[in-house]
């Protein structure tokens, strides 16, 4: 192990022992990580692999070329959407009955999450169920060149779990060498005018290469059956906020989220038919371009097997094109015990897309 690697190892190891945050609300205070040295992503990946040496290898997933006929002179914008599974919920609430507790150990699961991010190197990262922002993702990702924002849920269920690490929430990261932050909004979603426990972050970014602006949003809607109308109302509130932020759809938009809703639900239909002119990127992987994938989450609880499509990347269909999308895991790769597992850290799959701006007259978003 060379000097650089030892230095990195200590950087990673520093994030391992974070249980102190449950005694002191350290999640409210951002450590001063801006002055820390940058990390080489390749070296951090090696460190993660060293921690994971006893585990089976990562699953192979390929990008599917969606061959749009709009060549762009600028590099694509890679966006990752991922509900990473809150550590406190995975260990204390979710009841993944087929997942061995050792597979959920944070010291290793953290490295599996980082490995997934480092493997695809997104320009923008939209995460849900983040309950290790300040002690893990913010310090490490800032050293990889990302600027991050975290918005915790007001009454996170993580806080009910013994030895929790603070509340979970949404996090949004973007690469500072590619984008400039124009404005940022933390949104507590309402349903029928009532404040709810669900949140969103919406940021307007400017591409440094092209000077084009766009809005990126991340959300995690209310879970569980019986809450369909609530989710629908939260979706309407988010759409209304995004109408304002995009100045009535003048600014191109990408919305990532765990919507906790199948495509048959009302909230999905609101997004599909909104005047923001959105399309769902992962539909483009289907033969006819009209069908969502068969699943984005697959787990076994005491109540039985839960296989659902709940996670989406919506985008302004006139202003943006999806150049490629990362294929999902097959049933065989996921295995009989489903997710999470020793080789995949969350019950939700990551979604990754490469976007480019369409060359087109203004006002046709
Ligand atoms: N501390 C306090 O004083 C208060 C605490 N609370 C807590 O907040 C909770 C409600 O919060 P809310 O945000 O509305 O929660 P949600 O119903 O949205 O669910 C919270 C989490 O539970 C996961 N989940 C979904 N289905 C199940 C399931 N069947 N079993 C276990 N976990 C599941 C979800 O994961 P996914 O999205 O991946 O499906 C989600 O991350 C209450 O249960 C309570 O624990 C509420 C009020 C006050
Ligand atoms: Mg969950």
Describe this structure in words.
With 365 residues, the protein is α+β, with helices and mostly antiparallel strands. It has one domain: Endonuclease/exonuclease/phosphatase (Deoxyribonuclease I, Chain A, 4-Layer Sandwich), CATH 3.60.10. It has helices at residues 3-14, 41-51, 87-92, 106-120, 133-143, 228-245, 266-272, 331-334, and strands spanning 63-65, 77-83, 124-130, 146-152, 169-175, 179-191, 194-207, 213-220, 253-258, 278-280, 297-301, 304-308, 311-316, 320-326, 351-357. The strands form three sheets. Strands 1-14-15-2-3-5-4 form a seven-stranded mixed sheet. Helix 6 links the parallel strand 8 (213-220) and strand 9 (253-258). The chain is globular and about 50 Å long. Magnesium ion (MG) is lined by residues 83, 85, 89, 129.
Question: What's the topology here?
Answer:
Blueprint: H1 3-14, H2 41-51, E1 63-65, E2 77-83, H3 87-92, H4 106-120, E3 124-130, H5 133-143, E4 146-152, E5 169-175, E6 179-191, E7 194-207, E8 213-220, H6 228-245, E9 253-258, H7 266-272, E10 278-280, E11 297-301, E12 304-308, E13 311-316, E14 320-326, H8 331-334, E15 351-357
Parallel strand pairs: 2-3, 8-9
Antiparallel strand pairs: 1-14, 2-15, 3-5, 4-5, 6-7, 7-8, 9-13, 10-13, 11-12, 14-15
Bound molecules: NADPH dihydro-nicotinamide-adenine-dinucleotide phosphate and magnesium ion.
Number of DSSP helical runs: 8
CATH class: Alpha Beta
Beta-strand residue percentage: 25-35%
Biggest pleated-sheet summary:
7 strands, mixed
Strand order within the widest sheet?
1-14-15-2-3-5-4
| Assembly annotation | single chain
Keywords: Hydrolase
Domain Endonuclease/exonuclease/phosphatase: 80-348
Protein name: Nocturnin
InterPro entries: CCR4/nocturin_mRNA_transcr, Deadenylase_nocturnin, Endo/exonu/phosph_ase_sf, Endo/exonuclease/phosphatase
């Amino acid at each position: 192990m060379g000097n650089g690697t030892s230095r990195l190892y200590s950087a990673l190891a520093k994030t391992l022992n974070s249980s102190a945050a449950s005694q002191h609300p350290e999640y409210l205070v951002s450590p001063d990580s801006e002055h820390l040295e940058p990390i080489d992503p390749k070296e951090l990946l090696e460190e993660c692999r060293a921690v994971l040496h006893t585990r089976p290898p990562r699953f192979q997933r390929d990008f599917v070329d969606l061959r749009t006929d709009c060549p762009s002179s600028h590099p694509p914008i890679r966006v990752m959407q991922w509900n990473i599974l809150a550590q406190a919920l995975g260990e204390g609430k979710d009841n993944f009955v087929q997942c061995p507790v050792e597979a959920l150990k944070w010291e290793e699961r953290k490295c599996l999450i980082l490995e997934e991010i480092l493997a695809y190197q997104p320009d923008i990262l939209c995460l849900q169920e983040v309950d290790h922002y300040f002690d893990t993702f913010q310090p490490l990702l800032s050293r990889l060149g990302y600027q991050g924002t975290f918005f915790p849920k007001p009454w996170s269920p993580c806080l009910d779990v013994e030895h929790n690490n603070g509340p979970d929430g949404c996090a949004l990261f973007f690469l500072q060498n590619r984008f400039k932050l124009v404005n940022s909004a933390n949104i507590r979603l309402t349903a029928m005018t009532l404040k709810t426990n669900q949140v969103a972050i919406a940021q307007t970014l400017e591409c440094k290469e092209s000077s084009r602006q766009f809005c990126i949003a991340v959300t995690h809607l209310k879970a569980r059956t019986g809450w369909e109308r609530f989710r629908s109302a939260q979706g309407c509130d988010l759409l209304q906020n995004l109408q304002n932020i995009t100045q009535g759809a003048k600014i191109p938009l990408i919305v990532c989220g765990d919507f906790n809703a199948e495509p048959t639900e009302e909230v999905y239909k609101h997004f599909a038919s909104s005047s923001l002119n959105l399309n769902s990127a992962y539909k483009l992987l289907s033969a006819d371009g009209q069908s969502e994938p068969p699943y984005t989450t697959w787990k076994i609880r005491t109540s039985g097997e839960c296989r659902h499509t709940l996670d989406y990347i919506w985008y302004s269909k006139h202003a943006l094109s999806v150049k490629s999308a990362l294929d999902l895991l097959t049933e065989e790769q996921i295995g009989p015990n489903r997710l999470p597992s020793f080789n995949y850290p969350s019950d939700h799959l990551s979604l990754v897309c490469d976007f480019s701006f369409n060359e087109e007259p203004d006002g046709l978003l």
